[in-house]
Amino acid sequence: MPLSPEQQAEIDDLRARPQPTLRSTAPGMEGHLYTAYPVLDHGFVRVVDYMGDDAAICQAARVSYGKGTKSVSNDEGLIRYLMRHWHSTPFEMCEIKLHVKLPVFVARQWIRHRTANVNEYSARYSILDREFYIPAPEHVAAQSTVNNQGRGELLEGAEAARVLEILKADSARAYDNYEAMISQDGQQGLARELARMNLPANIYTQWYWKVDLHNLFHFLRLRADAHAQYEIRVYAEEICKLVADWVPFAYRAFEDYRMGGATLSATALDCIRRMVKGEEVTQETSGMSKGEWREFMQVVG
C-alpha cells in the first residue's frame, strides 16, 4: 500500500492540529499539506512544507517589503515578464519540501537533477518493504526503433504475459533471498547494507526532496514532457497539480513560456522570417542538419 499505518496516523494527527502563523500562506497549498497523492502502484507524493507564494516572487523582484500598492494584475504581469525574460532568482524565493515514495530506478533518474536537498530512506539502517513496481500491461512496450532511450510499440499477448511474469517472479525471488540473508533465525544474518545489493531496481524507496521553485520548474519542464519516461512523468504531472494551486500566476506563466513555448536558434528564426516573406524554405536551403530541420518542422507545423 502507498502509506504505512504509521505514516497515515502521523498525517491524520498533523491535519487535525493546524497551527497559527504570521507568515504568508498559499490557500491552494494549505489544502494539500500532508495529503499523500498516489502515483504508480505503490508510490505517492505529498507536501510536507512550503515557503512563499506568488507575492513572494514579486516582492523579491521589486526588492521591497510587503505588497505596496501593486494590484493583482500587476503581480501577474510582473511574473510573466520574469518568466519571459528568464529571470531566475525571484522564483528561488519559493521552496517546497516533498515526501516521495518511488521505485529505485525512477529515483536514479530523478537524482540527476542536482539542485535539491535530498534525504533518502536508509536501507543500511532499516529493512525495505516487499513492494515492487510492476508496470500495467499498457505500459509494457518494445524498444523504440527511432529513440535509443525510449519505448516503441506495445508488447502483446504471450510475450507481454511472459515479461510481466518474469518481473513478478524475479522481484519475489530477490526479496525472499534478501529476507533469508538478513534473518537472524539460527544464524548471525548478513548486514543490511550488504543484503540490499541483491534487490532489483524496481523496489520502492522513499525520500524527502526540498527544492526552490526555479529549479522545480526546470525539473517539471523536462520530466512532465510527453517524451519523458512514463514512470517519472506521472510523478512530475502530480507535482504540477500541486504547483498550480500553490503559485497559480507563476505556474500559468511556466505553462505558457516553458511547457507550451519553444526556443529557436538564430538560423531557425531566419528561416521563419524567410517563410513569412513567402520564400519556400527546405532543409537543403535552411542551413540546418536533418535532425534540426525535423525538430524545427515539429515546432512550426
Summarize the structure.
Helices cover 47% and strands 14% of the residues. It has 13 helices and 7 strands. With 301 residues, the chain is α+β, with helices and mostly antiparallel strands.
Describe this structure as you would to a colleague.
Residues 1-25 are annotated as: Disordered. The structure is a single chain. This protein is α+β, with helices and mostly antiparallel strands and 301 residues long. The protein folds into three domains: 5-133 and 202-259, Gyrase A, domain 2 (2-Layer Sandwich), CATH 3.30.1360; 135-201; 266-300, no CATH class. The chain has 13 helices and seven strands. It has helices spanning 5-16, 27-30, 54-62, 72-84, 104-110, 157-182, 192-195, 213-223, 230-246, 248-259, 266-276, 283-286, 290-300, and strands at 36-39, 43-51, 95-103, 117-120, 141-143, 151-154, 204-212. The chain has a five-stranded antiparallel sheet with strand order 1-2-3-7-4. The chain has a two-stranded antiparallel sheet with strand order 5-6. Helix 4 (72-84) packs parallel to helix 10 (248-259). The radius of gyration is 24 Å and the shape is flat. It starts with a helix and ends with a helix. The mean pLDDT is 92.
